[in-house]
Amino acid sequence: MDVSLTISPVRDREGRIVAASKTARDVTDRKRVREEILRLNAELEKRVHERTARLQAAVAELESFTYTVAHDLRAPLRGIHQFCDLLLEEKAAGLDEEARGWLLHVIDGARRMDGLIEGLLAYSRIGRQDLSLYALDLSGLVAEILAHLKGEIAQRKATVEVSPDLPRVLGNRLLLTQALTNLVSNAIKFVPPERTPVVGVSATVRGETVRIFVEDNGIGIEPRHHDRLFRIFERLHPRDQFAGNGIGLAIVKKAVEQMGGAVGVNAKEGPGTRFYIDLPAAGRADAPP
Fold first, then answer.
1. In Å, how far are 3, 4, 12, 15, 24 from 8, measured between CA atoms?
2. What gap in Å lies between CA 30 and CA 3, rounded to an integer?
3. Residues 6 or more apart in contact with residue 129 via CB below 8 angstroms
4. Which residues share a beta bridge with 279?
5. Rounded Cα–Cα distance for residues 217 and 271 (Å)
6. Radius of gyration of the CA atoms of the chain, in A
7. Burial (Cβ within 10 Å: 0-12, 13-18, ≥19) of residue 22
8. If you ran DSSP here, which 8-state letter would residue 281 be given?
9. Can you list the positions of beta strands (E) in the chain?
10. Residue 285: pLDDT band by 50, 70, 90 thresholds?
11. Which position among 59, 67, 146, 202 has the lowest Cβ density within 10 Å, counted as fewest Cβ atoms?
């Protein structure tokens, strides 16, 4: 039996101790209950740890499987594309218009599938690479992205307006480059053919968070579709209107969340869409890579 003993002084009217009182309580049941609670908590923690480990292993195996399958699919697909090109180049005289049309459909399908596989590989790589966060010069990073997209910008005769003196953020250069490249590229792409694309890149500091905006004057997105935007393979518009494989925004979301940030879309005045990325602000003590 477990006993809890309490001894208290007994005082007279002048406050002098004249005696002592003792109280003994049987705390066997209370101690047993406490030990049982501790045992159950430890068992629950062990189960959570084991299930988390199994889940992480399953996710890693799935990502590895996706990467391997997607990588191995590209070689035969490129072979199909190349042999169809050879047929068109070397045997064009022996093909009628209908046969040439069929080959062009095969080439277009192979090209789109290759783009889809490339997107899957990019999506898979985000979860497989080592992650390190450091201070990034947002202005310099955006300038590099625009230089990479120079041909696309020129082809669409787009205007990209970047706010001066963008703040530094805490992030990963590769992941943030992937995210912003997809957002800027989409901002140029999803604009009606008769309209000249105008893209804006800006940022605001909100306490310890930097919110990066990428907005456009494109076709816009109805609020009822906002929750679907970042799902993989989601497409809101027919393929014959706007090219794409439905992976770009899923890559944006996964890349940003890997950095501990958040991504979303909010309303803007006039036509178009405004996407945002939230990342921690970088202080002076945050060292570059």
1. 16, 13, 13, 14, 12
2. 10
3. 174
4. 210
5. 5
6. 31
7. exposed
8. B
9. 3-11, 17-26, 134-136, 159-162, 169-171, 198-206, 209-215, 262-266, 274-280
10. very low
11. 59
Rounded to 5°, angle at Cα 15 from 14 and 20: 130
Q: d(Cα 160, Cα 158) in Å, to the nearest integer? A: 6
**CA separation for the pair 272, 191 (Å, rounded):** 8
pLDDT at 223: 61
Read off the pLDDT band of 190 (50, 70, 90). Answer: confident
Residues in CB range of 78: below 8 A, 6 or more apart:
110, 114
- The amino acid occupying position 275 is F
Indicate the SS3 state at residue 254. Answer: helix
- Our CA angle for 179, 67, 64, nearest 5°, is 110
Q: Which two tokens stand for residue 44?
A: 């629950």
Nearest to 201 by CA among 145, 135, 271: 145
The whole-angstrom separation of Cα 212 and Cα 164 is 13
Summarised one tens digit per residue, pLDDT across range 18-68 is 676 666 666 566 777 777 788 888 888 888 888 888 877 776 776 677 677
B/e letters for 60-75, b = 16+ CB within 10 Å, e = fewer, are: eeebeebbeebeebee
Distance (Å, rounded) from C-alpha 149 to C-alpha 187?
12
Could you read off the pLDDT of 6-32 as tens digits, one per residue?
777 767 777 787 676 666 666 566 777
Nearest to 127 by CA among 246, 249, 253: 253
Ordered alpha helix ranges (H), 12-96? 28-90
Taking each helix axis from N to C terminus, what angle separates 97-128 and 173-189, rounded to the nearest 10 degrees? 150
